[in-house]
Amino acid sequence: MTASLAIEIAVQDPAGVRVASAVGAARVELASALALGGLTPSPATLELAIDAARSSGPEVHVLIRPRAGGFHYDADELAVSEKDVRRAVDAGADGVVIGALDAEGRLDLDAMARLRDAAGAASVTLHRAIDVTADPVATLVAARDLGLRRVLTSGGASAAIDGVDTLRALVAEAAGAIEVMAGSGVDAASAAALAATGVDALHFSAKRTVSEDGGVRMGSASDGVGGYEVTDLDIAQGVLAALGR
Question: Is residue 177 assigned to a domain?
């Protein structure tokens, strides 16, 4: 059931790339600020992650997202994203992960075509912007028509395990012409059921938080307790074990 299922791990640094390699992941999605849904990583992070991947195997696909919040971008944000796509590909990334919606919450075809073209021959994935559109199946059709390689989706739910019916519908509509990758809240408890929907890949972060209490508020969203996230080998191995690997 899972032999051909690709594994992609969302990571934030070269150490995460090495964890992904250790469990045999096909790809990493490289991002920063996963706690915010992921943002574009820094150039140095990208360079060192690609260096780590060259010696250990997984493809590096770079999240291009200029800010947290929704996916309707103004001209400046799209210009930044376009340059970030080109820089990622020029640095050696195997692909980019993008998503832009119009003011009505539909896939922004012009913006997506612009970012797709900036990626050249590199693989292009539509990220979970698909999950906040009114009709994920119609959005998948639009992504397929744009020539994108895959979509990353939770089936329109907060957690992929709650979107299995839509995931099955997406797989049926894709008909092998575009890959469907399930992501969001994927863990050892849900991995096998998600694989059974027929998706081409599973995406998960396998992350844990290292907490630090500095006692001083560092940002508008901070409660005074700081910390950072790392990719955890044991968590990643647990997901793979649930898939019989």
Answer: yes
Indicate if the alpha-carbon torsion angle 159, 37, 122, 27 is positive or negative: negative
pLDDT in tens, 156-205: 999 999 999 999 999 999 999 999 999 999 999 999 999 999 999 999 99
Q: Tell whether pTM > 0.90.
A: yes
The DSSP call for residue 44 is: H
What pLDDT, on a 0 to 100 scale, did the predictor assign at position 224?
47
Which of 68, 18, 15 shows the shortest CA–CA distance to 40? 68
Q: Give the pLDDT confidence score for residue 211 in this predicted structure.
A: 83
- The values of phi and psi at residue 29, to 5°, are -100, 115
In a domain, 1, yes or no: no
Q: Which domain holds residue 47?
A: 6-242
- How many domains, the chain? 1
C-alpha distance from residue 139 to each of 31, 63, 146 (Å): 23, 19, 11
Residues 6+ apart with CB under 8 A from 17: 11, 28, 30, 49, 52, 53, 56, 58, 60
Query: What whole-number distance in Å separates Cα of residue 151 and Cα of residue 146?
Result: 12
List strand residue ranges (DSSP E) for the chain, in order: 6-11, 27-30, 59-63, 95-98, 123-126, 150-153, 179-183, 201-204, 207-212, 226-231
Q: What is the CATH number of the domain that holds 150?
A: 3.20.20.380
Domain membership of residue 166 (yes or no) is yes
> Per the domain annotation, does 95 fall within a domain?
yes
Instruction: Check: CB of residue 9 under 8 Å from CB of residue 60.
Output: no
Cβ contact 99:71 at 8 Å? yes
